[in-house]
Amino acid sequence: MxxxxxxxxxxxxxxxxxxxxxRADEDIGFFFNKSIQDWDxxxxxxxxxxxxxxxxxxxxxxxxxQAHLEVDHNFNQSIEQKHFGVWLNLWFETINExxxxxxxxxxxxxxxxxxxxxxxxxxxxxxxxx
Length: 130
What we know:
- By secondary structure, this protein is mainly α.
- It has one domain: Orthogonal Bundle (Globin-like), CATH 1.10.490.10.
- The protein is built from six helices and no strands.
- It has helices spanning 8-24, 29-35, 39-55, 64-74, 81-98, 102-125.
- It starts with 7 loop residues before the first helix and ends in a 5-residue tail after the last helix.
């Protein structure tokens, strides 16, 4: 049964179930599985990020753009737009499995915008960009 996103527990469920899919995905899972050492800590940090993003709690401390630039560097600048497409599809799939309503839609829109901006940051930072 779907419900609205209302609490940190809802956000935690979304993040946890989403990253189960990410870790198992053959197209992008390796980026995450090789980059993240402490999954419990990472899931908590991402729950903070999405709680800040959706519920306007000020819990998140971090720099997502810098973190993604480092991952791209560590993988020889191999992150492509298609990887963000896979990420978005899994995010939408997870939201649609568990949630509905305004905040579910905001989570989709914010993720779409974030994926675009982070990819463009990565692309513009590469030495080959002229």
